[in-house]
Fold this sequence. Notes:
The structure holds 2 protein chains of 2 kinds. Chain A is an all-alpha fold. Helices cover 82% and strands 0% of the residues of chain A. Chain A has helices at 2-25, 37-47, 51-84, 86-99, 108-114, 118-143, 147-155, 160-198, 204-213, 217-245, 247-253. Chain B contains 10 helices and 10 strands. In chain B, the strands form 2 sheets. Chain B has a 6-stranded mixed sheet with strand order 6-7-8-3-9-10, sandwiched between helices. In chain B, strands 2-1-4-5 form a 4-stranded antiparallel sheet, covered by helices on one side. Chain A: It is a multi-pass membrane protein. Chain A: InterPro entries: MetI-like, MetI-like_sf.
Amino acid sequence: MEHARVLRGVAGVAGFLAAAEIVGATGLIDDRFLPRMSTILRGAAELLVDGEFLADARASLAAWGLGLLLTVAVAVPAGLALGALPPVERAVRPLIEFLRPIPSVAIIPLAILLFSDNLHLRVAVVVYAASWPIVINTIYALRDVDPLAKETLRSFGFGPVSVLLRVALPSAAPFIATGIRVAAGTAVILVISAELLAGGAEGVGIYITEAASGNRMDLMLGAALWAGLFGVLSNTALVAVERRLFRWHDARTGAAR
Amino acid sequence: MLEITDLVHSYGSHRVLDGVNIRAAEGELVCVVGPSGCGKSTLLRSVAGLIRPTGGRVLIGGQPVDRIPDNLAVVFQDYSRSLYPWMTAANNVALPLRRRGLDRRRRREAAIAALDQVGLADAAAKYPWEMSGGMQQRVSIARALAYRPSLLLMDEPFGSVDAQTREDLEDLVLRVCAHHGMTTLLITHDIDESVYVGDRVIVLTRSPARVAADLPVDLGESRDQIATRQRDAFVRLRAEVGRLVRGGSPTSTVLEKK
């Protein structure tokens, strides 16, 4: 079944690429603005041996990884604190509900004013934007922890902090992990958006800007393609990690992902 | 060992416990039986220190219960919620032993020994969701045993398993409680079970709960699922408990024995 699903996904992607190529070949679209699919794919392949692009990719990857790490370090404890202390959560809630719908990209101009260092800037916008799904998931997951599970440990004389760390946190972990996976996707968007808007020395966003100004649409779209592919791969890797770590959760809820 | 005196509890204006008095001597297995919704679980939670009763007093070994006592273990009905699915059976059993200040190795040894006592020596590495309901409840019982409490509380411990498993678990509890000389308070709505397992049966009235009767069980130490249940004493006491649970008043024949 798993096999058939992968096969179907591959077929879908191949079908899209073929359709795009055929539309390009008919001359319906001016290929100065949108190059043929085969040209874009060749451009993407060229990027793999392009030292400049690889350095940019490494720089973006570093900002992404550092940003995500910091996000987890900030958002999980914040979510735990808010989930464990309902009065604090109620006080902070309106602020969260106000800030969350603001498109994260809109805060990049503010970040440009605040941070002179480009890495700091990118990490900061990632932490701001990617924290939301983790914080929200953690709060809700903690709220849904089985009271009997907590009471059991309490009846053995464990205090509230032990119950939080030994029962609530593991119970909530699968949902926190899902939040982290969503955050990882958001972080890709924010790193590249920040590079596009703020400029700087290196990054995939910088490469895209330069390729566009040099009228190399094939390289520009090739770079975008790699960014998208990176998002897919990181998501797949995180799903695999979740499945391994939270086998107990799938077994219990009978979820087949 | 356990003294519950004039215990009163209300949820808002709704009175659940209306002056409950229960005594249990060291090593005694006392069954509390009553109609469903009469406040049995509230009683257990008050004894466990999980809720603070509105009035009255609970003493365990002479000490008042004003917070959660550290010489007590609870077995809940719902094993699937009370065991931790991210831990193996052995780790579930070992977890509370952190409160005993044992190191990792000693915790593990104690857990394996307790699992052995409930007949699950081979299942130490299994996860709860890989086990049947009866096995899971055995793990819960092992977890309570390993903790070596002086008072064991059981809240409808066999309410969620099939009839055959239920009988096996009743015999298991009889065996381990006698072996450890543990004072046990077992809450059930099952009349047969209360008589079969108990040294004494305490019948609660309909809500708000009071003690309707406190009946000694004269069936001796060793019990057998078939033979004991056929004995005249068993049949008579079961009928008496059944009548009391349905709201009847105590008959003189049983009271004379007290």
